[in-house]
Write a structure and sequence with these properties.
With about 300 residues, the chain is mostly beta strands. It is about 10% helix and about 55% strand. The chain contains 4 helices and 19 strands. It has a 19-stranded mixed beta sheet that branches. The radius of gyration is 24 Å and the shape is elongated.
């Protein structure tokens, strides 16, 4: 093979295997993302608003990383106060206080205000939060609160005694070693946690149609389900469990030692292992059923 042919072959291979070529072959062009890192003070609680998509990761420092397409503004407002981190999508930030938001990294600490950062140039063009990737890094997190159509997810996250509050239409998908303390589900979208890391006491309160899907191990669980809510804990091996369903709710559970099941109204509680001790109470069309023999 001549040098010219070899050179043309190598150039052609580079073009075909380049990210832009691959993206073009799929029918879309994926822009490069520009990341900016914000080092923050300690926070234990994370509040997410305005449809943002947030990924949780473990890290030695408390940081927020905002990645966005290079040519697109990303007006993400980052606030820290009283161990709380709040992430929101600032729609009106450019028009209300231009003198403040001209700076991509502005601190109000000198004025006795919470520390605030705004990522994005002074421009009235706003884009959907789906185009922005936000990563929150912390050694551990105690509480996550979701508003609007926000999404919080993780792949290999570790924490203890975590409280999840899903207020409106949020979506939670946590993977890792998650120590749970409490779940409050008021959303029509699901909360998924895999793997629950041998939590001691878990309190679950659900009033939304969104499912609660849990897998892992726990010692004691107390769950109250209302308003057509659903809990799937077939793959959550609990020692003791207390479950109450109302208003057309349903629960699939697994308890090894003790199960107290109370189905009031048109509700079903299904258990997939025969516990050593079983207490069941039903009213009207409520049912407590053994669906499987996972002994």
């Amino acid at each position: 093979m001549s040098k010219r042919v070899a050179t043309l072959f190598s150039i052609g291979l580079m073009v075909i295997c380049s990210p832009m070529a691959l993206a073009y072959n799929k029918g879309k062009i994926t822009p490069r993302l520009k990341a900016k890192v914000f080092n923050l003070k300690k926070f234990d609680n994370v509040y997410v608003k305005d449809g943002l998509h947030v990924k949780l990761e473990n890290g030695r420092r408390y940081q927020v990383i905002v990645s966005r397409p290079k040519d697109l503004p990303a007006p993400v407002l980052i606030q820290t106060k009283d161990n709380n981190l709040t992430l929101s999508w600032e729609y009106d930030g450019f028009t209300k206080q231009k003198t403040v938001y001209n700076h991509p990294h502005f601190s109000w600490q000198k004025h006795g205000m919470p520390i605030q950062h705004l990522v994005g140039p002074e421009d009235k063009a706003h884009y959907h939060p789906d185009q922005v990737k936000i990563t929150v890094k912390a050694p551990s997190i105690k509480k996550v609160v979701l508003y609007d159509t926000t999404t919080v997810f993780s792949k290999r996250f570790k924490c203890k005694d975590l409280t999840i509050v899903n207020q409106e239409s949020g979506y939670v998908d946590l993977n890792g070693m998650i120590g749970l303390k409490q779940i409050i589900q008021n959303s029509a979208r699901p909360i998924k946690v895999n793997w629950v890391d041998n939590s001691n006491n878990i309190q679950i309160d659900a009033t939304g149609k969104g499912a609660i899907e849990l897998a892992g191990e726990a010692k004691h669980i107390r769950a109250t389900l209302h308003k057509r809510s659903y809990m799937d804990s077939r793959y959550l091996r609990a020692k003791d469990m207390w479950v109450q369903t109302k208003d057309r709710s349903h629960a699939d559970v697994l308890a090894t030692n003790f199960l107290a099941a109370f189905a009031f109204g048109t509700n079903n509680i299904s258990y997939y292992k025969t516990p050593a001790y079983l207490i069941e109470e039903t009213s009207k069309l409520g049912n407590v059923l053994q669906k499987g023999f996972w002994n």
